[in-house]
Amino acid sequence: MSRPLPVTLAQAAPHPIGEGVTGFARDVEDLVARFPGSRLVVFPELHLHGTHARPDERDAELEASAEPLDGPRSKALAELAGDLKIWLVPGTVCERGTDGALYNTALALSPEGRIAAWYRKVFPWRPYEPYRPGDRFVVFDIPEAGRVGFAICYDVWFPEVTRHLAWMGAEVVVNPVMTTTSDRAQELVLVRANAIMNQVHVVSVNAAGPVGTGRSLVVDPEGRVRVEAGEAATVLTDVLDLDDVTRVRRYGTAGLNRVWAQFAETDAPLDLPLYRGRIDPSHWNTTGS
Asked: Where is the CN hydrolase domain (predicted)?
């Protein structure tokens, strides 16, 4: 049985902040017209927030562009997804929380024209980013395909994020990125490692050069790179079969390693002093129950 999820990944330079959602909407409409089979369309991290001429201007520009989740930007993006009948991840946005703080927040807009899920980056890139950390992991379901989780940029450096998403049932992790630095090479290794360790698809979408370092990629549940970009602006397309996750977890990575079937019911819980907690074998599954 196949559960296909056609994805379109836009490796693009950050959108000019002064153009707002209107200019972005034209880009998305053009993308869907070029690739009419698209079901899930993903843009890089902070794509709608442009570039900053000087680092000391960045925080002021982000403060000025921040909106609450129910603000006009989110409503316009949801309407766009509804008009095009797609699942849209417009990268991440600078959210003004009800507490007044700034959050780096990923949105999933549904074909019904609503916010289906939102996730605040749990691991902001400190000391460089001005955001307050999120406090929860987030997954959402795409009907007839499967479950999707969010990990924003620096989150992939922390294995707890993808592991928890997989435990919550995620079969594909969407990773919007805005890496402008020389550590993209390490990120590529981490994207593959997270896919292998958790037996999930990972799609990592970075900003294009000359602002970002590109190299967006799609990785399957056994860690194979299905498609990878260079540094220039481009579009990656692929069709993920989320049933591959079921296959790999049943038969093992390379037909061998079945990490989600590691524990027997008679195994004792394993204490985890680092987290002041433990792995309980009775909870070691991929359904979140």
From this structure: 5-242
**Tokens 């594909």 sit on residue:** 172
- Rounded Cα–Cα distance for residues 44 and 277 (Å): 35
pTM, rounded to two decimals = 0.93
| Residue 288 covered by a domain | no
Alpha carbons 267 and 245: distance in angstroms, whole number: 25
Are 7 and 218 in contact, with CB atoms under 8 Å apart?
Answer: yes
Task: Give the CA distances from residue 178 to residues 42, 142, 152, in Å, rounded to whole numbers and listed in that order.
Answer: 13, 25, 9
Q: Is residue 275 part of a domain?
A: no
Report the alpha-carbon distance of residue 259 to residue 285 in Å, rounded.
10
Tell me the residue length of the chain.
Answer: 289
The DSSP H or E segment spanning 271 is strand 270-272
Using one digit for the tens of pLDDT, what is the confidence trace for 269-281?
899 888 777 767 7
- Tens of pLDDT, residues 115-164: 999 999 999 999 989 999 999 999 999 999 999 999 999 999 999 999 99
Burial class (CB in 10 A: 0-12, 13-18, 19+), 264: exposed
Structural contact between residues 278 and 271, judged by C-beta atoms closer than 8 angstroms:
yes
Alpha helical stretches, state H, 86-141: none
Question: CA 187, CA 190: separation in Å to the nearest integer?
Answer: 5
Instruction: Report the domain count for the chain.
Output: 1
- Range of 46's domain? 4-257
Cα–Cα distance measured from residue 203 to residue 64, given in angstroms and rounded to the nearest whole number: 30
